[in-house]
Design brief:
By secondary structure, this protein is α+β, with helices and mostly antiparallel strands. Helices cover 19% and strands 30% of the residues.
C-alpha cells in the first residue's frame, strides 16, 4: 500500500484557470454537460452566446464576433485540470463570536441575529469535503459539510467562493436569511503584474442579516417603444401599450452606502435579448461596485421570475447576471424593486420602494486546507492473470482498494462487513465520497490489453454463457394489413429483459467500516462477464469449428468526446478486370460494370488472406469515468 495524498494540489495561475473556464464553459444549451458546438455566436449587446444552429430565439444581436471550435477547450480536460488544483478537504477559520459579534448592525432583530450568529459560528468547526463539479454557463464546485456547504464559481473573469449555512426546514425569517450565503470571497483575473496561484487569496465578506428598505428615483428617458405584449400582437388594452427605451436611476446617499454595487445610472432596454417579458436593461457605463475591478462588471435591471409563486410577485432586480438559473441555483442580486413596479410610459420621476437583502461587511476570514493523514491506496503493479471458465463470471477481480480516515463521521458506511454500493442508484453516495475517489488514479498495470486464458473445455463450447449473454428472443413475422412486420416473441422478450437485469455487473464497488473511524473502498472488474458478452457476439457455429478465440481486457479512462472519423467514400471499379459472362445468363447478360464487380468479388473469395473478426464489449463506471473493455 502507498500513501493517498489528498491535500496535494497543482499550482495554477488564477488567470489561466479563469481563461480555460471561459473557453470550456457551456455556450449553448445544445452542448449539454460535455459537448462543444462548431461555431458560437456572441451577442454584441448582452454578451449571450448561442451556436449557429440554435440562434434566433431569442433574437439577440449576433454581429461580428464568433467563437470557433479550434479556440475552445474540452470540458473533460478542464474538469480534470480544475480538480487537480483544488484540495479535497478545506475548513474556514474566523467564524468566531469574537469576530462576528462586533459586526452586529443597528436595528437588526435580536432573535434573528442570534439565530444567524449561531449558524455562522457553527461553521468554524466544520470541515468541507469536495463533492461535485458541474458545468453550465459557469463552472461550479461544491463542498459539503454537516452544517453547511461551500461553492466555487468561475464565470466571466471572476472566481468567487461562497459559504452557506444549513437552513431549517420550517419556513420563516430564519430560513429566509440562511437561504442566502453567509460569506463570500472574490478573485478577479489579474490585469497586470504578477499572477496569483492561491485560490483563497482574497478579501472575505459576511452577509449580515439586515434588510434595508429605501426609495429610489426612477425616470423614463429616451423614446417610447412597443411593450412586449404589443410586439406579440395582443389586442385590446395591450395593443397600444408603450414603454421607455431607457431608465435613469438615482439613489440617496444613505442608501448607496448600504448597496453592494453602484446602481445609479442610465439603463438601456435590450428588448431583443433573453429577458423575461423582453424587459432586460443594461447600465450604459459599467456597473460595478466601488473600485476599478468591479466597474468592469456589467450591471443589469431585469425581471427575475420566481420558481414558484404568482406572476404579480415577480419583481425587477439589479444584478450582475441575468442568465436562466438551473435547479438548486440561486441568484445574487444587488437590490430588488417593489414587485408591483413595471416599465411603462409614465412621464416624470417615480419614487419606487426598493430593498436590499442583507448587508455585506468585510471580516478577517481564512480558508485553509485540511490534511487527511493516514489515507492509503493499494493497486496491482503487474498485469492481472484472469482465467475464463464457465463459472468465473460469478466473481469480480479487484483492481484497487483504498483506506481513508472518517473524521467527518461514519454515517452511511454500514457495519464492519464488505457491502456493495448499488451503482444504478449511487449518485448521492459517490458524491459523499468524492473527496477521496477523485484522487484515485487508474492502476498502470491495467491500462494495456492483457490476455485472458480461455479454459479448454469452455472453448469447445464456444465460450458461451447464458448468464452474461442471454439468448435473444426469436423474431415472428406477423401480417398487419397488407404488410408483414417482424416482432419479437413477447414471452421470450420479457425473459430476456429480466435476464439482462440479473446478469453480473461489470463493475463492483464495495465499502467497509473499520474500527469505527476508518473507511475502506475497493473496486473490482468482472473481466469474465465482459469477455463472455463479447464471445456471444461472434458466430456460435464458427466458434466451435475454428481454433479457440483470443481474449483480452483492459481498464482505461473514459471520455465522451466523439472521434473524428474520415467520411465514408465509395471506390470505383472502372480499373478492375471484368469477368466473362456466366454461362446461364443468356436472357439477361451482365452489364460491363457488373462484370467488373463480379470479377472483384471472385478475387476476394479466392484470396488466402485471413480475416479476423473482433468484438469488444465495454462498461463505464460513471462516478469515476473508468471504462472496462473485454474482447
Amino acid at each position: 500500500a502507498s500513501e493517498l495524498k489528498l491535500a496535494n494540489v497543482r499550482q495554477l495561475a488564477v488567470s489561466t484557470l479563469l481563461s480555460d473556464a471561459a473557453r470550456s464553459a457551456r455556450m449553448c444549451t445544445c452542448e449539454g454537460r460535455s459537448g462543444l458546438a462548431a461555431t458560437i455566436l456572441v451577442c454584441s449587446e448582452c454578451g449571450a452566446t448561442s451556436c449557429s444552429k440554435c440562434s434566433g430565439r431569442p433574437e439577440h444581436v449576433f454581429t461580428g464576433k464568433e467563437v470557433h471550435l479550434e479556440s475552445r477547450l474540452s470540458p473533460q480536460a478542464f474538469q480534470q485540470q480544475l480538480k487537480s488544483a483544488l484540495p479535497m478537504c478545506i475548513k474556514m477559520d474566523g467564524f468566531t463570536v469574537s469576530k462576528l459579534a462586533p459586526l452586529k448592525p443597528f436595528g437588526v432583530n435580536p432573535a434573528l441575529w442570534e439565530a444567524w450568529l449561531e449558524a455562522a459560528t457553527g461553521l468554524e468547526k466544520c470541515e468541507f469535503f469536495f463533492s461535485t463539479v458541474s458545468r453550465s454557463e459557469q463552472w461550479s464546485v461544491e463542498y459539503t459539510a454537516a452544517l453547511g456547504r461551500m461553492e466555487l464559481h468561475l464565470e466571466g473573469g471572476l472566481l468567487q467562493w461562497t459559504v452557506w449555512a444549513k437552513s431549517p426546514e420550517a419556513p420563516g425569517p430564519v430560513r429566509d436569511v440562511l437561504s442566502r450565503p453567509i460569506a463570500r470571497m472574490c478573485l478577479h483575473a489579474p490585469t497586470s503584474g504578477s499572477d496569483v496561484t492561491s485560490l483563497f487569496q482574497g478579501d472575505w465578506k459576511v452577509c449580515l442579516p439586515l434588510d434595508y428598505n429605501f426609495e429610489m428615483t426612477v425616470e423614463g428617458v429616451g423614446s417610447l417603444v412597443d411593450t412586449w405584449e404589443s410586439r406579440l400582437g395582443l389586442q385590446g388594452s395591450f395593443a397600444a401599450k408603450k414603454r421607455w427605451s431607457s431608465w435613469r436611476v438615482s439613489v440617496p446617499a444613505a442608501a448607496a452606502a448600504m448597496l453592494d454595487a453602484d446602481v445609479a445610472g442610465t439603463y438601456r432596454l435590450l428588448d431583443k435579448c433573453a429577458g423575461a417579458m423582453g424587459a432586460l436593461h443594461k447600465k450604459d457605463v459599467g456597473g460595478g461596485a466601488r473600485g476599478d475591478r468591479e466597474r468592469s462588471r456589467p450591471l443589469y435591471l431585469f425581471q427575475d421570475p420566481t420558481r414558484c409563486g404568482k406572476p404579480e410577485e415577480d419583481g425587477f432586480v439589479f444584478g450582475h447576471s441575468f442568465r436562466r438559473l438551473a435547479y438548486r441555483e440561486s441568484r445574487s442580486t444587488v437590490a430588488s424593486l417593489c414587485a408591483t413596479w413595471r416599465p411603462t410610459e409614465a412621464k416624470g420621476k417615480q419614487q419606487v420602494p426598493c430593498r436590499t437583502l442583507g448587508k455585506w461587511c468585510s471580516v478577517d476570514l481564512q480558508c485553509v486546507t485540511v490534511r487527511c493523514e493516514g489515507a492509503t491506496i493499494s493497486a496491482p503493479t503487474q498485469p492481472l492473470d484472469v482465467e475464463l471458465t464457465k463459472a468465473s463470471c460469478r466473481e469480480a477481480t479487484a483492481v484497487l482498494q483504498c483506506r481513508v480516515p472518517l473524521e467527518q463521521g461514519t454515517q452511511g458506511w454500514g457495519s464492519g462487513e464488505w457491502t456493495s454500493i448499488p451503482l444504478l442508484r449511487s449518485k448521492a453516495k459517490f458524491e459523499s465520497i468524492a473527496w477521496f475517489t477523485e484522487r484515485l488514479r487508474l492502476p498502470p498495470a491495467t491500462s494495456e490489453w492483457t490476455g485472458v486464458a480461455l479454459d479448454e473445455a469452455h472453448a469447445k463450447e464456444g465460450g458461451a454463457c447464458v448468464v452474461c449473454a442471454p439468448p435473444l428472443p426469436e423474431l415472428q413475422f406477423v401480417a398487419v394489413g397488407n404488410k408483414v412486420e417482424a416482432r419479437e416473441d413477447v414471452q421470450q422478450a420479457g425473459l430476456y429483459e429480466q435476464a439482462l437485469k440479473r446478469r453480473p455487473p461489470a463493475f463492483v464497488v464495495q465499502q467497509k467500516l473499520e474500527n469505527s473511524k476508518w473507511g475502506s473502498v475497493r473496486i473490482a472488474v468482472n473481466v469474465a462477464s465482459l469477455v463472455h458478452r463479447s464471445l456471444a457476439a461472434l458466430p456460435a457455429d464458427a466458434m466451435k469449428a475454428m481454433e479457440p478465440a483470443r481474449c483480452a481486457w483492459r481498464l482505461v479512462q473514459h471520455d465522451d468526446v466523439k472521434s473524428a472519423l474520415a467520411p465514408l467514400t465509395m471506390g470505383s471499379n472502372k480499373k478492375d478486370k471484368p469477368h466473362g459472362q456466366p454461362p446461364n445468363f443468356k436472357q439477361f447478360p451482365l452489364r460491363p460494370e457488373q462484370q467488373r464487380s463480379l470479377g472483384w468479388m471472385l478475387q476476394q473469395e479466392a484470396s488466402m488472406e485471413m480475416f479476423h473478426e473482433e468484438e469488444v464489449e465495454e462498461a463505464v463506471l460513471e462516478s469515476l469515468q473508468w471504462r472496462a473493455e473485454g474482447k
